[in-house]
Write a structure and sequence with these properties.
By secondary structure, this protein is of the alpha/beta class. It contains 13 helices and 16 strands. The chain has an 8-stranded mixed sheet, sandwiched between helices.
Length: 358
């Protein structure tokens, strides 16, 4: 099978794990990226396409003629576009693929309905009209895509996989080790986490990795609640330090609040924690709930969050069971090899359908 993936993400060699895994499945793969240099990476051809604009990916303008030349030269069996459907890059790639009658898979992270400009609507229409299937980054994005394409196959998977980590050998102790990682913003819900922690009966600690405009008020809240001695404020530490922190946690809590114009659409740190066997705890209503359901704790408010943390403290065996289940879910669904298998299965489903005749 020959395939072309179109995405700005693969400019960075550190994000190419899925590409390597797909190429390892006996697939001839080309990654079209905006700019950069032509190279071969683990059997994957990296094809630079001239682009202007930026720095935001959505504002990039890919050169349409260069996309056409690439598609004509490669003549892939399928093209996967991992730019948002409302972007110029997506609509340009979809239009050229349709011109050559090459099946297309379109990707979207957009997780909340919003008012779109006339140009965005036109680009989205072009992208989705060409789509033989879609990939949604989460279940909320899948719901929005189904409203637009009720009869089109839609798979749910992130763009990038996580690294399979060795299982930790630390047995749960008498002290519940709680973690949070992320920007300290009102919608992240750390104030609710602090109030929930104040209700726990028994020994616990909380490590907060991240900084932001809410830090001062959150530290003051911790002082008022009498929690300061149990909390470590780690600040904005590098990703490597966050990864080193995870194996020492019993649970990672991301109590984000969904608003009319914001939702936590994904969390690589949560997947990294699950891969380590750390119990994930998230709020319902967001995109992370479906990732955690059945292998962690999904809570509705700070009272139920406090109950969930109290339960994890009281029952160490439950921590072990959920941690093992969370790790297994990552291995089955979210490592690079799993994403490669899901992607190729979707491509085969598209290719097995009758080709549209324009």
């Amino acid at each position: 099978m020959r395939a072309v993936l179109v995405s700005h993400l693969y400019l960075d060699p550190g994000t190419r794990g899925k590409l390597r895994a797909i190429a390892g499945q006996d697939c001839s793969l080309v990654a079209a990226v905006p700019g950069g240099v032509a190279e071969t990476f683990a059997g994957v051809r990296i094809a630079p396409i001239p682009a202007t604009g930026g720095p935001e990916p959505g504002s990039l303008r890919w050169e349409t003629r260069a996309l056409r030349r690439l598609f004509t030269d490669v003549r892939p069996d399928i093209i996967q576009i991992e730019e948002e459907p409302v972007s110029q890059g997506s609509s340009a790639a979809a239009s050229e693929a349709a011109r050559l009658n090459i099946p297309v898979v379109v990707f979207s992270w957009e997780s909340l309905p919003r008012r779109k400009s006339f140009l965005e609507k036109r680009r989205m229409s072009t992208s989705l009209k060409a789509a033989g299937a879609c990939i949604a980054g989460n279940t909320l994005a899948a719901d929005l895509l189904r409203e637009e394409l009720p009869t089109t196959p839609i798979a749910v998977m992130p763009q990038l996989g996580v690294t399979a980590r060795p299982p930790r050998d630390r047995a749960p102790g008498d002290v519940l080790s709680i973690g949070f990682a992320g920007r300290l913003l009102p919608q992240r819900g750390v104030d609710s986490l602090l109030r929930a922690c104040a209700s726990i009966m028994g020994p616990w600690t909380l490590s907060v990795a991240g900084t932001g405009p809410e830090q001062e008020s959150l530290e003051a809240q911790a002082q008022r609640l009498g929690l300061a001695s149990r909390i470590r404020w780690l600040g904005g530490i590098p990703r490597a330090d966050v990864e080193a922190l995870l194996p020492g946690l019993d649970c990672l809590v991301l109590p984000s609040r969904r608003t009319d114009d914001w939702v936590e659409r994904w969390s690589p740190v949560l997947l990294d924690a699950m891969a380590c066997g750390v119990v994930p705890v998230v709020n319902e209503g967001g995109a992370l709930a479906s990732v955690v359901e059945g292998v962690g704790k999904v809570v509705g408010d700070e009272e139920s969050l406090g109950v969930a943390l109290q339960t994890l403290l009281a029952y160490p065996d439950e921590r072990l069971r959920l941690g093992a289940a969370a790790r297994q879910r990552v291995l089955e669904r979210y490592v690079d090899s799993a994403l490669a298998e899901q992607t190729i299965a979707l491509w085969r489903q598209v290719l097995a359908r009758p080709r549209r005749v324009e």
